[in-house]
Design a protein that fits this description.
The complex is a heterotrimer of chains A (315), B (297) and C (269).
Chain A: H1 2-6, H2 15-49, H3 51-57, H4 60-63, E1 67-68, E2 73-74, H5 77-106, H6 112-125, H7 130-156, H8 171-196, H9 199-207, H10 212-241, H11 244-249, H12 267-274, H13 281-314
Antiparallel strand pairs in A: 1-2
Helix pairs in contact in A: 2-13, 3-13, 5-6, 5-8, 5-10, 5-12, 6-8, 8-10, 9-10, 10-13, 12-13
Chain B: H1 11-46, H2 71-102, H3 107-121, H4 124-136, H5 148-172, H6 176-184, H7 189-217, H8 247-255, H9 260-296
Chain C: H1 2-11, E1 12-23, E2 26-37, E3 41-45, H2 52-58, E4 69-77, E5 80-81, H3 89-95, E6 96-99, H4 110-120, H5 127-137, H6 141-144, H7 157-170, E7 175-179, H8 187-200, E8 205-209, H9 213-219, E9 222-230, E10 238-247, H10 248-253, H11 258-264
Parallel strand pairs in C: 3-8, 3-9, 6-7, 7-8
Antiparallel strand pairs in C: 1-2, 1-4, 4-5, 9-10
The chains are: A mainly alpha (315), B mainly alpha (297), C alpha/beta (269).
The structure holds adenosine-5'-triphosphate (ATP) and magnesium ion.
Magnesium ion is lined by residues 52-53, 179 of chain C.
Amino acid sequence: MEEKLALFKNRKRFGIEKNIDIIFKNTALVLSSFVAIILLGIVLVVFFQSFESFSRYGLKFLVTSEWNPVKDEYGAFTAIYGTLITSFLSLLITIPLGVGTAIFITEDFVPKVFREIIGSFVELLAAIPSVVLGLWAIFVMEPFFRAFFVFLHNFFGWVPLFSSEPTGRNSLLAILILVVMLLPIVTSIARDSLNQVPKKLRNASYGIGASRWKTIFSVILPAALSGIMAGVLLALGRAMGETMAVTMIIGNSNAFSWSLLSPGYTISSMLANQFGEADGSQVSSLFYAAFVLMILSLVVNIFAQWLVKKFSLKY
Amino acid sequence: MNSLFYQKNSSRNIGDKVFTSLSLICVVISILPLIFLVTYILIKGGAQITPELFTLEPNPPGDDLDAGGINPALIGTLIITTIASIIAIPVGVGGGIYLAEYSKGGPFSRFIRFGVNVLAGVPSIIAGVFIYALIVSTKILFGSMYSGLAGGMALSILMLPTVIKTTDEGLKLVPNELRYASLGVGASMYTTILKITLPSAFRSIATGVVLGIARAAGETAPLIFTALFSYYYITGFGDLFYEMGSLAVLIYNFALEPYDAQNKLAWAASFILVLSILSVNIFSRILAALTEKTKRV
Amino acid sequence: MIKNTKKAQKNNILSLEDVSISYGKFEAVKNIFCNFKKGDITSLIGPSGCGKSTVLRSLNRMNDLIPNCSLKGTVLFDGTNIYDKRVDPVEVRRRIGMVFQQPNPFPKSIYENIAFGARINGYVGDMDDLVELSLKKAALWSECKDKLNDSGYSLSGGQQQRLCIARTIAIEPEIILMDEPCSALDPISTLKIEETMHELKKNYTIIIVTHNMQQALRVSDMTAFFNAIEYEDGDGGKVGYLAEFNSTKKIFSSPKEKTTQEYISGKFG
Ligand SMILES: Nc1ncnc2c1ncn2[C@@H]1O[C@H](COP(=O)(O)OP(=O)(O)OP(=O)(O)O)[C@@H](O)[C@H]1O
Ligand SMILES: [Mg+2]
């Protein structure tokens, strides 16, 4: 026994090992706080860089659409309007499509294999870089929809949204490519929320003789609603911040127009377009616009997270 | 006529059919363009692939018919994503370790997890704007402005939340009994993490990280005014401090050129980018499905 | 008189002095006084939820790993209060080993399962010898000597538990704590593990939590009966306490407390 214990003469945890343990923990602590530091850094840097423009134009910046580096006049209304209209309208199209698809792949209309294939295919598409979607939009989508846009203008020209002659690249194309980008997000989150609805709720409804769609509309969708809402908000955040595909297809014009058939601007496409070549107070104004975009997406994201939290507490 | 037989024409059954068809239409509308998109990219892009593509520099846009290759952009993408990974993986894994292993669900970790989700939702172009203000415009990196290094940093901001999240979640899946086993034989916390918990979670963390890298490889917005673009071969270490091309920015720049030759290069680059990203995704999905199965057995 | 207590203290390898343990605001066990003698096997028995595992975990500071678990009082081991601020819990766990309720081998080979802990504890001898010896002590050697490189998970539940015991005795702790080591096992494996304990008794002090009266009777020298009573303020919560502590023989043949009598005869629990 004594002899055996001698083999453990190094059992004591020496100072070095204790110190490594402490250093390891503190390093991990510092690394995890990087997230907060970066986040704070982003907010502060963007805010301070926009300060010059902010103090000069104030809130007027948000409602005027003059963007003239020569005259040093800046207002981001066109871009803000473009950001909001493209993201909301694209979401409006995406929600029914995405939720409909999600219902289809969570119900047993077709064998499980097919549903899983459809599901993972949709998810794979979320991995396609947006710049590639932009390329595709320029060379495939735009020619494809050209005639349709002319038709829209001819028959619905009295609606302000279609009131202008369609141009090659325009806001409506940006909306359509956004739909393609958002579909995977909305579909997969809606599917997850639908899958989380407890089986017994569904059975209870079938048990009292409700038909399938009656069950879906009156039991399953309401139960999954907050999850779907959170997903929709995340998608909204993504749509507002989406840059490449939109920049490539929206036409990039600061001239304000109600019509979706004329070229437009979003904050992010304005940044992508002008940041590299800007100088002087234009830079500060771009930072101001970036700040607005950041606040918009932060608000949407935080609200989405709040919903997620509330939602996960429920079950 | 109160029979139990299925009544084709009852309003209930017609309603059900209508909605079922509607949801099928949703599937078709969502899926068709997507299928079309992928096939188009693969066919149109695949047709442009030649050996020279991988070895030549791109020619500056002009009327000449020969656009050259995408070698600098290809190498640039590899370098920039590597830089991003070198920054984001240690920071993210370390941070994830803290959240999952040390913080006991207190306010700090709740705050950081919240921050991770918020950072994940920050538009990618904002990451570019941030690095521009911090690194590019200040010339803080030995006086260089636009550089591959700055681009890598911008990308790392986008990768960071993914890495932390997958590490945190991967570690949380490791059963506590395993930690107790190791600590119970007198292992230090760091030994337990490095030798027991991290290896157990390795596969799920690695999958998540690889997917994160794949996504970052296609990001464009953070690069357009940090790494900018370059037409020239990358020849040495010093090139890190100069403008650097990437597949993503090449696609952006050349898609907007009026010349067919450049457009074709953009398609070729898209092909390479999409093919690699999709294969990484499919491969990791298959791997995940396989491990799932072996676990259940 | 003084000499006597000194002698008693010398024999007591581990003593609890007025120990109360809480999870957050909830007090799980209260005012425990208890001495464990060197070389004894002590059983902890009692109804579910009365805090046996809680007490056991407090003996080698495994409770530190549970968020918001706190302890009042002193736990003396070898004359030192292991809850003293200066004490390194890792060091404590190296000297007081633990076998858990659910077998929890490392996701490594059988060999590595044993070598891991030994290496950490600074073992300088021949590793192959140690692995063989520990597996023999845990009555597992004959079953796995040909597959030492297989994963620990390839063993059956009972074998896994014996592997965990082997892993614990490989590091030569002074005390082995076992939390219902046989609850997931079939009768044959259970008997094997009990044999192992008898074997181990020669060199180690063992404290074991068990729900099996026969097992307590078969293996242990001393038995501690824990019970739980409702809080005095009567909000329905229960707090555990040590109801009776005596030699196993006495506890099972002539318990002093009525509740002990009722418990061992199966009236509640
Ligand atoms: N991690 C924990 N967090 C909060 N409360 C706990 C925790 N572990 C145990 N408790 C509570 O402490 C009390 C004692 O639990 P303990 O597990 O020690 O009982 P036990 O006697 O081992 O029961 P069993 O025989 O079922 O294993 C119980 O009321 C339990 O709910
Ligand atoms: Mg217990």
